Amino acid sequence: MLQQMRRGVDKRAALVESLKINFEPVFLTSLTTVIGFLSLNFSDAPPFRDLGNITAMGVVAAWVYSIGFLPALMAILPVRVKQQPIGEASVMDRLSDLVIRRRRTIMVAMVATVGALAALIPRIELNDQFVKYFDQTIQFRQDTDFAMEHLSGIYQVQWSLPAPGPGAISEPAFLEQTGRFVEWLRARDTVVHVQTITDIFNRLNKNMHGDDPAWYRLPEERDLAAQYLLLFEMSLPYGLDLNNQINVDKSATRIIATLENITTNELRELDDAATAWFRENLPSAAETTASGPFVMFAYIAKRNIDGMLTGTLVAFVLISLCLTIALRSLKLGLISLIPNLVPAFMAFGVWAVLVGQVGLASSVVTATSLGIIVDATVHFLSKYQRAQRTTGASPEEAVRYAFSTVGTALWVTTAVLIAGFAVLSLSTFEINASLGQLTAITLFMAIVVDFLLLPTLLLTFAGSRVDDEPALAPAKHAAE
User: Is residue 18 part of a domain?
Assistant: First the structure.
C-alpha cells in the first residue's frame, strides 16, 4: 500500500491493489507456517507438541486479522506518505542490479558457501546433559554442581537383574555373575559408586567367620546364602526392609550405579556395553537395559529426532505440494525446494563451528523453521511470477520487480522474526536458548539465500516464461 501511495496512487486504490497482489501469497505463507508447526506433533515431548499447536492457532489468527481487520483499519486511519521521486533507485533496486550483473559469481560463491557449511555438519555431536539444561544462576544447578564436585553426584543408573526363578537370587551361580558385573561396573572410570546385594552377602559371610578378611566373598551354597539373607532382614530396624534392592519373591535384584557428570552419549555407550555383557555372561538378564531419569533424558533427544525426521519429511512434502499447486508451475516448485532446505544446512554448519553439539532443542528446529523460511521464498516467487505473467517481463525484469515490491518487506519481517527468536537466548533454560539461537541463525541464512541464491537460480534455470504459459501483453495489462 505504501509503495503504491509513494507513486501517487490514492489510499483506497492502493489498499485494493495490495490485497489483490498479496492475498494469495499471504494465505500460502500462513498455510506453510501452520504445516511446519503442526509437524511438531510427531515429537515425543508434549511441550513441543503444545508449542506447535498453540503457534499454529496463533498463525491462523494472525492471517484473519491481517486480511480482515488490518485493511479496514488502514482505510479508516489517516495515512500520509511522501511521494518518491521518479527514477530514484532504492537499496533493493541497487541490490537487484548487483545480483543480475554478478549472477554467476554470486551463484558460485553461494554454492561454495553452502557446500562448506554442509560439510561441517558431521562434526556435530548429538549430546545432552540434563543438569546443564539450567543456567548456573539457577539454585538447582548450583546445588547439583556442588554435589558432583564434593559428593558422589546425582546421575544414577539402575539395572533390574532377573534370577532364574523365585528365591533364585540366593543361587551361588547367579550371585557370582552379579558380582562379576558389579566389578565390571566399578572398573569403569565414570562410575563413582555401585549399590548391590552382593556386597551384603560378602559382608555377612565375613562377619559370620569372625570378621576374617579372607571370608569376604560370596557364599558357595544356596541354603547358606538364603539363611544369610533371612538373618540380615530380621536384624533390620523396625520398618526397614530390602525391597529397595530385591523384589518380594526374591526373583530379581536391583543394582544402582552412581555416575560422574557424563554425557548422554557416554551413558548410551555404557548401556549398550552392559546389555552385551548380560547376553554373554548372564542369560537370565539378556534383555535387561538400564533405567532411571538420566537414562530417559539420554534417549529422549534421539527418539525426538527420529520422530521429527518423519514430521519434517511430511511437512516438506506438504509444503512443496502447496507451493507447486499455488504457483501452478512445476519448474518454480522445484526451484523453491533449494532455498527452503539450504538455510537449515547452513545454520547447522555454523552451529558446528560455534557450539559443536546439539541436543533436544535441535530436533524441532528444522520443522519449525521450514514453515517460516518458506514465507520469503513464496513472496519472492509470487512477485517474480506476477511480473512474467502480467507484463511478459524477462527474467531480469521480473527479478527487479520482485526486489522492488517485496524486498524491503522481506528483510523487515525477517529481522522481526530473528529478534523474536533471539529473545529466547536470554532464557536460563538451555533448551529454549538453543532453540531460539539456532532458529534465528536459520532465519538469517534464509534471507541471505532468498536475496542472493534464489534470484540467480531463477535467472539461470527459470527461463523467459513460467512453464511456457502465455503472458499478457504489456498493452493489455496497461489497459486493464
Answer: no
